[in-house]
């Protein structure tokens, strides 16, 4: 196609796909490289929840909403910790991104939008998702992308991993080095280099370097290895945001030695399944109101615990009568006493020994909870729904903890999505979008509905539609 491209997009996921599509539709010579053997990235794992204000759908439903309202509402939920520049850029342009997706055929649930869902609710209905989660978004982007690849407007190279960013003597990005599917190394040159490589949580060594105080339990894309972050940092890019980490409540590892073996299906949201159990920490003490309606409250309570570790404690009566904790795991009962993260004992002291917690503390905690059940008043935490005492052996404990689905640290960019150096100057020709920016930049110290996936899509669209420029450089080269 060319030995010098107008745009090189590194990654073909939430941000990379719209970047390549819109740039190619504008006439750019686009090279897109992807470490995986398929396009889509985290769209295969994401819940697909997006938020946008001022959309055509809202207007049809008579919902009054503005980008400014969206921004202010997101900051309210995040307690003002969203990066103002990035937050405004995302919310100001999310409505147009949503309308573009619907024009391509995206169809959310008929009752959408809503105000809330998995996290703290908005004050206005601007929150969307579809039956097939984020795959519904991929399903409308892929045909367009496939068509542009077939027409030769996007040169797509799968199983090709970026190993570095090439900079000239002035410090401007002028290309990338890659390792191809057959193991060969190549240098590829372009006018605009766009890094959309996702997070770094699937790189245990980098995670330990970037976030040393955060235990790694993850549910992430296998290719979230931090390639873009590492490559950009080597040519002077600023990396920050590690202090904005917030764990997801909560996960259980199928294999205690594998931080990426997070079990799916655990139902810890009281809106989905009211808890019958109690949650205790490594001291054998309760640390949160189990049925607290705010997931943000529960997540921050878990974040404050040692190693973000918790145990779900219950007895035989609860096991027999409560709704399934994990409807996806039909063999959970067989794990108790046979799996290191599923403990079972005839006595609470025996259970405490298996949990590695203080037996006297656990016994006192259970007694205090049973007294609260008997009196109907949980004076310690204010729990409302207490179904039955924990008093009939055998007793059970599931070993769980805070997990990560996104990486907190990332590349710092300006309002044009140019990657910045530590001195505040942009690196010429180098841009970034998506999780490589760091989760906290767009969501702060909270999980704000739709403020992860939608900014990735939006920033990719903006880059492809108008932020990237190549005509003058192409003319000079020719």
List keywords for this structure.
478 residues; alpha+beta; FAD/NAD(P)-binding domain; Flavocytochrome C3, Chain A, domain 1; 2 domains; eight-stranded mixed β-sheet; five-stranded antiparallel β-sheet; 15 helices; 17 strands; globular
Could you walk me through the main structural features you see in this protein, from its secondary elements to its overall organization?
With 478 residues, this protein is of the alpha+beta class. The chain folds into two domains: 4-241 and 406-477, FAD/NAD(P)-binding domain (3-Layer(bba) Sandwich), CATH 3.50.50.60; 248-403, Succinate dehydrogenase/fumarate reductase flavoprotein, catalytic domain (Flavocytochrome C3, Chain A, domain 1, Alpha-Beta Complex), CATH 3.90.700. Helix content is 31%, strand content 18%. It contains 15 helices and 17 strands. The protein has helices at residues 16-25, 56-60, 67-77, 84-103, 135-150, 204-210, 227-234, 295-303, 316-321, 332-335, 348-355, 359-375, 439-443, 453-467, 471-477, and strands at residues 4-10, 30-33, 50-51, 127-128, 154-157, 161-167, 173-179, 185-195, 239-240, 248-251, 278-280, 309-315, 342-345, 395-403, 410-411, 418-420, 426-432. The strands form four sheets. Strands 1, 2, 5, 6, 7, 8, 16 and 17 form an eight-stranded mixed sheet that branches. Strands 10, 11, 12, 13 and 14 form a five-stranded antiparallel sheet that branches. Strands 3-4 form a two-stranded antiparallel ribbon. A hairpin with a 5-residue loop joins strand 16 (418-420) and strand 17 (426-432). Helix 1 (16-25) packs parallel to helix 5 and helix 3 (67-77) packs across helix 4 (84-103). The chain starts with a strand and ends with a helix.
């Amino acid at each position: 196609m060319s030995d010098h491209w107008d745009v090189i997009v590194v990654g073909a996921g939430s941000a990379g796909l719209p970047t390549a599509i819109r740039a190619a539709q504008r006439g750019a010579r686009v090279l897109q490289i992807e470490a995986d053997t398929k396009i889509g990235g985290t769209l295969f794992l994401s819940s697909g929840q997006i938020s946008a204000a001022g959309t055509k759908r809202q207007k049809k439903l008579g919902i009054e909403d503005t980008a400014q309202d969206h921004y202010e509402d997101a900051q309210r939920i995040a307690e003002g910790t969203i990066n103002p520049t990035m937050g405004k850029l995302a919310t100001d342009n999310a409505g147009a991104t949503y309308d573009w997706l619907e024009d391509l055929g995206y169809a959310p649930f008929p009752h959408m939008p809503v105000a809330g869902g998995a996290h703290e609710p908005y004050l206005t209905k601007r929150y969307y998702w579809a039956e097939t989660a984020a795959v519904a978004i991929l399903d409308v982007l892929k045909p367009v992308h496939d068509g542009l690849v077939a027409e030769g407007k996007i040169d797509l190279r799968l199983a090709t991993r970026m190993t570095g960013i090439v900079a000239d003597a002035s410090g401007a990005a002028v290309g990338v080095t890659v390792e191809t599917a057959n193991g060969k190394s190549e240098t590829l040159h372009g006018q605009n280099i766009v890094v959309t490589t996702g997070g770094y949580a699937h790189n245990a060594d980098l995670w330990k370097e970037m976030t040393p105080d955060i235990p790694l339990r993850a549910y992430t894309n296998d290719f979230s290895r931090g390639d873009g972050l590492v490559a950009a940092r080597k040519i002077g890019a600023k990396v920050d945001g590690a202090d904005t980490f917030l764990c997801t409540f909560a996960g259980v590892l199928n294999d205690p030695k594998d931080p990426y073996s997070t079990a799916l299906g655990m139902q810890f949201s009281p809106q989905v399944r009211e808890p019958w159990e109690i949650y205790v920490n490594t001291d054998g003490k309760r640390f949160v109101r189990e049925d607290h309606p705010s997931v943000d409250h529960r997540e921050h309570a878990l974040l404050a615990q040692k190693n973000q570790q918790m145990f779900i404690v219950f007895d035989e009566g609860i096991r027999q009568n409560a709704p399934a904790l994990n409807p996806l795991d039909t063999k959970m009962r067989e794990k108790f006493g046979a799996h290191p993260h599923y403990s079972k004992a005839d006595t609470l002291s025996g259970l405490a020994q298996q949990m590695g917690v203080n037996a006297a503390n656990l016994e006192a905690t259970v007694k205090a909870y049973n007294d609260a059940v008997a009196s109907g008043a949980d004076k310690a935490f204010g729990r409302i729904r207490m179904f039955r005492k924990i008093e009939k052996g055998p007793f059970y404990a599931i070993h769980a903890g805070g997990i990560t689905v996104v990486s907190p640290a990332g590349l710092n960019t300006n309002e044009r999505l140019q990657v910045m150096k530590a001195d505040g100057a942009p690196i010429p020709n180098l841009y970034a979008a998506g999780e490589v920016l760091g989760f906290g930049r767009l969501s702060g110290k909270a999980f704000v509905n739709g403020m992860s996936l939608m900014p990735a899509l939006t920033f990719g669209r903006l880059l492809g539609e108008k932020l990237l420029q190549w005509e003058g450089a192409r003319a000079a080269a020719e």
